[in-house]
Amino acid sequence: MDVVVIGAGHNGLTAAIRLARAGLDVLVVDKLPWPGGMAGYHILAGRKVGVGAYVVGVMPEELREELGLSIYVPDPIAVYELDGEYVRWWRDPKKRVEEFRERGLGDEAAAFIEKLASMNRALRRLFHKPPAEEELRADPEAAELVEKTARDILSQYLPQEYWPMFIYEHLLDQPAFYLAYFNPPEGWGYPEAGGERGIWALAESLYRKALEAGARVVLGASVEKILVKNGAVEGVLTSWGKAIEARAVLSTASPIHTLLDLVGPEHLDEEAERRLRAAAAPPAGPYKANVVLAREARLREGLQQYRESILQLPFGEAVVHGDYVTLVGEPDLEALESYVLNLRDLKALEVWGPAEYTATFNAAGAYVNHLPLTRDFLLCRPGVRLGL
Ligand SMILES: Cc1cc2nc3c(=O)[nH]c(=O)nc-3n(C[C@H](O)[C@H](O)[C@H](O)COP(=O)(O)OP(=O)(O)OC[C@H]3O[C@@H](n4cnc5c(N)ncnc54)[C@H](O)[C@@H]3O)c2cc1C
After folding, report:
1. Among 4, 78, 211, 269, which has the highest number of CB atoms less than 10 A from its own CB?
2. Rg of the chain's alpha carbons, rounded to an integer?
3. Eight-state DSSP code of residue 296
4. What is the distance between the alpha carbons of residues 325 and 299, in angstroms, rounded to a whole number?
5. Mind listing the pLDDT tens digit for each residue in 369-384?
6. 156 backbone dihedrals φ, ψ, rounded to 5°
7. How far apart are CA 58 and CA 251, in angstroms?
8. How far is 223 from 244, CA to CA, in rounded Å?
9. Helix 10-21 vs helix 200-213: angle between axes, to the nearest 10 degrees?
10. E-strand spans in 243-300?
11. How many C-beta atoms surround the C-beta of residue 63 within 10 A?
């Protein structure tokens, strides 16, 4: 075996496609019985519903093309409720500027939109592979991504009531990097494949392409250990009791789980172990409610026309696909009912919380990005004695 890939989430599958297309012998192993990981789906009341992610945005254009993925971007992309009105984030940057102008924000809003685009360009140029901190500081466009906070940038251009359109409150004092990361100029959208639109189209498409490329994919089985001898990786030990030799092991599981549980602290620097243990804090991550209705969701007046858009509501973000509504934020159904008027047509409901995300994906701390999005992890490459 050339490579064992741990995890059949979108990153594991994407890596497997690339490696298998390059002619390598690839085995993907995932503890879960479905492909797609946190961007996967399952069936609720006869309908496909996403278990975690619901829109795609930060995937580079070149990668989308290489993988043949189609993403449908709604227009407006997102609608943000502010004082009972809807602020629309259009696909066309000129319309974005007009929208803000109509709300009394002038040149500063236009400058902000340009700023987001330039920060995003720097992010794509330099964060393709983990850059060295000096490399970033030396680059005029990139330096402020790590030197300034999201709050520094936002407060320069926009009144505070608009900030939640662009960043979660808990990230305001983190590097401006996250502002660029969460706001790609081309926006966010829904994967499409085989006549279907929804996050499930991504997992289905990547899974099919990985198999077509010749990768083997084992679902519902875990890697228990990454085997290491004389400072080099030898393979993995699986939950079905077999050791599989491999020239390389690529883990897309959380670094906390990978390094502390699979590699083992005996191979880590003390400082790396301390930081990873500190990061594995009690779950504090998101809640997600999946609601399947007996008929099409009917939205509140004024919002119905934006039913394809990402709905940024005071208690979370909602997305509607016909009779399916998903809400990430506070799972407050009473509040949701004032937006989805026929919520009483509810056929099935499931709520995922931090404890489920932690246990299901081996994602300590329920971090949906596998590590805390804080400054001390942004440029961190924990020292590992393996020479990995
Ligand atoms: C509620 C919620 C909403 C989100 N919304 C969005 C969104 O709209 N857009 C967006 O871009 N992102 C979103 N995210 C984040 C996004 O889903 C994740 O960052 C992304 O899916 C991670 O992909 P991945 O392939 O890196 O990891 P994962 O999807 O976590 O895949 C890693 C896989 O490794 C497997 N694994 C772990 N340990 C082992 C082991 N020992 N042996 C075998 N397999 C193992 C896990 O089962 C998992 O399937 C959201 C996440 C959540 C939870």
Report:
1. 4
2. 22
3. -
4. 11
5. 898 888 878 876 655 5
6. -75, -25
7. 21
8. 10
9. 30
10. 243-245, 248-251, 287-293
11. 11
Model confidence pLDDT, tens digit, residues 188-245: 999 998 889 999 999 999 999 999 999 999 999 999 999 999 888 999 999 999 999 9
pTM value is 0.94
Instruction: Name the residue type at position 27.
Output: L
Ligand 1 pocket, CB under 6 A? 6-12, 29-32, 37-39, 52-56, 222-223, 252-253, 257, 262, 286, 288, 328, 357, 361-363, 368-369
For residue 136, what are the contacts with CB-CB under 8 A and spacing of at least 6? Answer: 126, 142, 143, 145, 146, 379
DSSP annotation of 102 reads: H
Asked whether the bond before 184 is cis by omega within 30 degrees of 0, the reply is: no
* CA atoms in the 13 A half-sphere facing the CB of 181: 18
For residue 58, with 0-12 CB atoms within 10 Å meaning exposed, 13-18 middle and 19 or more buried, which class applies?
middle
Residues counted in the chain: 388
Identity of the amino acid at 336: L
Neighbours of 296 (CB within 10 A): 14
Q: Which of 105-114, 119-128, 291-300 has the highest mean pLDDT?
A: 291-300
DSSP 44-56: ETTEEEESS---B
How far is CA 293 from its chain centroid? 26
Nearest CA to ligand 1 atom 13: 53
Protein residue whose Cα sits closest to atom 20 of ligand 1 = 38
- Helix H or strand E encompassing 225: strand 223-229
- Residue with the nearest Cα to atom 10 of ligand 1? 53
Q: Angle 107-126/140-147 helices, nearest 10 degrees?
A: 100
Structure tokens at 228: 């290491």
